[in-house]
Sequence to fold (186 residues):
Amino acid sequence: MSAADRDLEGRVRRDAQTAVTALGLLIDHLSISRAGKRSLVRIAVDDDLSGLPAGDEATPVPPVTLDAVAEATARIGAALDDSDVLGQSPYVLEVTSPGTSSPLSLPRHFRRNVGRLVRLSLADDTEVTGRIVRADGSQLVIGAPADQARAAERVIPYVHIRRAGVQVEFTHAQENAHEPHDDQED
Fold:
């Protein structure tokens, strides 16, 4: 990527971040590419997690809602239209939230996915699959998947992780659907 492209992405990121900060969101990923005569601006927004209590490493975080993505799209579009960052060139704006196929590479990515099943490729060439129990700024604690015998929790520093991704589950949600809710009488 050229210096001019990095500069453009940086300026678009700054404008987009300013537009979504009040929504409690942050820019997780941004890319700009050419699509014919237009620029294609792809932005993934995520919860900035600032609303979590200090020291909370284990409370599951709900995903970014479609309403939040729609509001972010409107605000980012208005901010880009009002600025001259993209010049007079037409552009297409795509705003999404990080999906399950998004790699986990930053501590906040792991924190956002507490409770989810993940597969990790470690620096020692081993692979680990388990459920994130806790995640802080330097490491995560992973437990056994629900379909395996309970194993001891394992602490894994982020520096030991080469690749990580969320595993799509179909049975975990169904298992929980049959559990009584606190507001239901038995």
